[in-house]
């Protein structure tokens, strides 16, 4: 990334988000976040520009995006997503606002159990999705609709989707790499670091890949 950019983060209070924002802050970038409960940002609250609100509100997205170089969505609300494609509805409003404000880069984190638009999930992942992870079905359907929308209607933006495989909030297990293989079961911190790197990786643009630990890391 260029020095001193402005990054707008949705989901900064979440399990991936709270790790993610540390990276641009460490590199001297400005971080703006939309949070339903800014107090959940803890110590980071003093270092970011926090706007209180929900993606389901009638937001002034143009103001939120003013001066923004890159947008990051680390959003999830499995209960709300059971009944409604909350994230898709939001991304469909976000993308036109990004165009109006000249923000060209978008990182969206989905899950490894969400199928990419161009292929079915491997049998093993399909089995996990329909059994032990079935309470997240709505979230996966929502994330899949986001991927389809970006693929079909947003090829003018430099978007990238990370279909993360996350298992714990423990210590780092190594560096993740983009992969079309089976996903590693990664930590939230490693996914956050990987996602931050994706923002400045031109080879990742318009991909919806999973990630695996590099050789030497603890791949699942
Ligand atoms: N958790 C996993 O094991 C896992 C595994 C693989 C992939 N993923 C994917 O990674 C993405 C993020 O997951 P995560 O586990 O890091 O997130 P998370 O811990 O569930 O946090 C979700 C974030 O989204 C925010 N959010 C939800 N609804 C919102 C709304 N209406 N308005 C504003 N903010 C809202 C939450 O804010 P509040 O703090 O206000 O709730 C929180 O900051 C999801 O797409 C998920 O499918 C997760």
UniProtKB/TrEMBL annotation:
InterPro entries given in the database record: NAD(P)-bd_dom, NAD(P)-bd_dom_sf, Polyketide_Oxido-like
Transmembrane segments: none
Domain NAD(P)-binding span(s) in chain numbering: 11-175
A Pfam entry, by short name: NAD_binding_10
Top-rank taxon: Bacteria
UniProt xrefs under PANTHER family: FLAVIN REDUCTASE (NADPH)
Protein's name according to its UniProt entry: NAD(P)-binding domain-containing protein
Organism, scientific name: Frondihabitans peucedani
């Amino acid at each position: 990334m260029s020095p001193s950019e402005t990054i707008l983060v949705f989901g900064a209070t979440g399990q991936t988000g709270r790790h993610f924002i540390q990276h641009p802050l460490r590199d001297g970038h400005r971080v703006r976040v939309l949070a339903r409960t800014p107090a959940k940002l803890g110590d980071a609250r003093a270092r970011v520009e926090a706007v209180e609100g929900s993606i389901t509100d009638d937001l002034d997205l143009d103001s939120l995006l003013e001066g923004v170089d890159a947008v990051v969505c680390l959003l999830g609300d499995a209960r709300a997503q059971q009944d409604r494609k909350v994230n898709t509805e939001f991304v469909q409003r976000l993308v036109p606002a990004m165009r109006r404000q000249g923000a060209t880069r978008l990182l969206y984190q989905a899950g490894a159990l969400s199928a990419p638009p161009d292929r079915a999930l491997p049998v093993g992942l399909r089995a996990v999705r329909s059994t032990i992870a079935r309470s997240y079905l709505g979230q996966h359907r929502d994330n899949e609709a986001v991927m389809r929308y970006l693929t079909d209607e947003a090829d003018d933006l430099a978007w990238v989707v990370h279909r993360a495989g996350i298992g714990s909030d423990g210590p780092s297990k190594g560096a993740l790499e983009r992969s079309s293989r089976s996903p590693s079961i990664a930590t939230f911190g490693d996914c956050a670091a990987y996602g931050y790197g994706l923002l400045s990786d031109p080879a990742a643009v318009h991909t919806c890949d999973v990630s695996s630990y590099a050789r030497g890391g603890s791949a699942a």
